[in-house]
Amino acid sequence: MNRKHLSKSAWAALIGKWVFLAVMIIFTVYPVVYTVLGSLKTNAELTQGGGFLPQEWHFENYYKAFVQADFTQYTLNSVIVSVSVTFLAVATCSLAGFILARREFAGKKLLMALYMSMMFVSLGSVTLYPIYELLRTLKINKTILALVIALTGGQATNVFLVMGFTKGIPKELDEAAIIDGCSIYGVYSRIILPLSKPILAVVALFSFRNAWNDYITSLIMTISMPKLQTLTVAVVQLKYSVNAAAEWHIMLAGASIAIIPILIVYLLANKQFIAGLTAGAVKG
Amino acid sequence: MEDKKSRSIIQQKKAVKQNLQAYSFLLPNLILFMACSLYPVVWTLKYVFYQYGGFGTGVPRFVGLANLARVFRDKVYWQSVLHTFTYGFGKVIIIIPLAFFLAFLLNQQKRGNGVAQSIMFLPTIMSSAVMGLVFYLLFNAYNGEINKYLMQVGLISRPINWLGKNNAMKTLIITAVWGGVGNYMVYFIAGIQQVSEDAIESARIDGAGRLQTIWYIIIPMLGPILKIIMMLAITSAFHDITNVMVLTEGGPNNATMVMSLYGYRYFFPISSAEATIPQYGYGAAVSVVSAVIAGVVTVAYLKVSKKLDDIY
C-alpha cells in the first residue's frame, strides 16, 4: 500500500496505534533501563532523586559487586548450573521423547498417565522440601549437583513436546536405517537426533532461561551452602543485608549482572524464543 | 511342538530385550521424574495426615484429619485464598484485553511490528525475582523513582505508599501485568494468524470497520484459542509466588498473602529476616487444599466456557 493513498482516518489510526504502543513500550522498558542506568549511579543519586542519567558513570559499582559482594563466585555458579541444567534437560528429554514416540513397551501406558497427571497436579514450591530431604539422604545436598537435579526435574512438558515432534518424523527413515543394519541406538543417534535439532533448541532455550532466572529452588537447594548461591539468590539477599538502605547502587549492579547475560541471549535468539513459546503452547 | 516352544522362548527373550532397550532410553529422565515430581507429591499427600517438625524433631506423629480440619478453621488461610482470587482476577482482567489489543495491532508482518513484539516480550525472559527487587526499589514510598516522577509531573502532591496495606495488591498486579502481557500477546498473535485472512478480508469488503471486524469476526473465530489462553492465565495466576515473595513478602500484615506463599511459609521462611518453626504436616495440608481449589476453579471455568459455546 502506498503511503500517499492513506486516508485521513487511516492516518489517525496509525498515529493512535503508535502512541498506544509507545506508552506500552515505555512501560515495558523503563524498569530495565532504570536497572542498568541505576547501577552506574551513586546511592545518594538513587535515593535522594537525581536525573535520569547518572551524573558521573560509576563503573566501580560493578567492581564492588564482583569483588566485595562476591558476585564473581555467584556468576560462576549461575553459569555452571544453567549450562548443566540445559545439557541434562536436552539429553534426558530427547532420549525419553524419542522412545515414547517410537516404541511400545511394558508399562508405557502407566508411565504416560503418571507424566500427564504430574503436569496437572501442582503443589507448588512446597515439594522442594521432600526433594531436599531426599538429596540430603543421598548426601549430595551440599553440592551444586543438588541444585542441578532439582532444577532439571521431571520435564514432563518437554518430554511430550519432543515426543510430538518425533512422531512427525517419517517412520520410513527409521525402517530404512534398521534395514541398513542400525540398532535402535543407531536410529536414535544417526537419524532422529540430527533431525530433532529445532525442538531440542526450544527445550535448551527455555531450560536455560528457567535455570538462570530461578529463585526459589536455588534458594532452598543452597540453604546449607551459601557459597553455592546463584546470581538471582545473591541479588535478592542484598535486600536483607544490614545496610540495604545504603546499597541500592550495589543491588542494581547485581541485578544488571543477573539480567544482562539473558538479555544478550535474547538479543541473539528472540525469534526462537517467541516461536518456541507458541510451539510449546500449541502442541504441548 | 518343541519347535513352537523354542520359538516362543525366543520371542519372549526378544520382548524382554526390547523392553530393556526402551527403559535404557527412558531411565535418565525417569529417575529425575520419580525424584523431583512423583516422590514429592506422594510425600506431601502422606504428610497431610501427620504432625512433623522436620529433621531432628522426633518421629512424625499420625494425626488423621486434624491438619485438614485446622485448614478449614484457619482464617488467615481463607484470607489468603481471597487474596489469590483478587490477584488472579485483577491480573487476568487487565492482561487478557491488553495482550489481545497488542496482538491485534502487531500481528501483521509490517515494518516496526517485529521490533515492537520483541520489546513487549522482553519481561518474559527476565527473572521475576530480580525484577521483583527492582520494583521494590522503584515503588519505594520515600526514595522510589515512581513517586518522584509522579510528584514532578504534579499528578500527586504527597508520596503514595505503594507497598502499604491499601496499595500493595494493586502494585503487585501492575508488576504481574508487566511480566506477563508479552507472553499472552504472543499466544494471541499465534491465534489470530490461524483465523483465515479470507474471513477478515470478506468482512472488510462487506463494509465492516476495524472494531466490527474484531468483534464479529476475530473474537468469535478465536473462541477455542481464547479459551485455552484464558485457562493458562487463570491457572498461572494461582501459582505466582516468586514476585509476591520478593516484592511484598505477603505483607504488610498479610495484605498480599496468597495461598501458594501461605503453604510455603510452613516449610521455609519467606524472607531471611523471618524465622519460622516448620510445620510440615500443616503446610502439606494447606498446599493440598490449595491445589484442590485451583483444580475446582479450572474445572468450573471449563464448564462455563463450554456452556458459552452452546449459546454461540
Fill in the keyword field for this structure:
heterodimer, A: 284 residues, mainly alpha, MetI-like fold, 74% helix, 0% strand, globular, B: 312 residues, two-stranded antiparallel ribbon, 12 helices, 2 strands
Helices, strands, pairings?
The complex is a heterodimer of chains A (284) and B (312).
Chain A: H1 8-38, H2 43-48, H3 60-68, H4 71-102, H5 108-120, H6 128-137, H7 144-152, H8 156-167, H9 171-179, H10 184-195, H11 197-213, H12 216-221, H13 231-237, H14 248-283
Chain B: H1 2-47, E1 50-51, E2 61-62, H2 66-73, H3 75-106, H4 113-121, H5 128-138, H6 145-153, H7 168-192, H8 197-205, H9 210-239, H10 242-247, H11 259-264, H12 280-311
Antiparallel strand pairs in B: 1-2
Structure report:
Chain A is an all-alpha fold and 284 residues long. Chain A has a single domain (60-283), classed as MetI-like (MetI-like fold, Orthogonal Bundle), CATH 1.10.3720. In chain A, 74% of the residues lie in helices and 0% in strands. Chain A starts with 7 loop residues before the first helix and ends with a helix. Chain B is mainly alpha-helical and 312 residues long. Chain B has helices at 2-47, 66-73, 75-106, 113-121, 128-138, 145-153, 168-192, 197-205, 210-239, 242-247, 259-264, 280-311, and strands at residues 50-51, 61-62. Chain B has a two-stranded antiparallel ribbon. Chain B is globular. The termini of chain B are far apart.
How would you sum up this structure in a few lines?
The complex is a heterodimer of chains A (284) and B (312). Chain A has 284 residues and is mainly α.
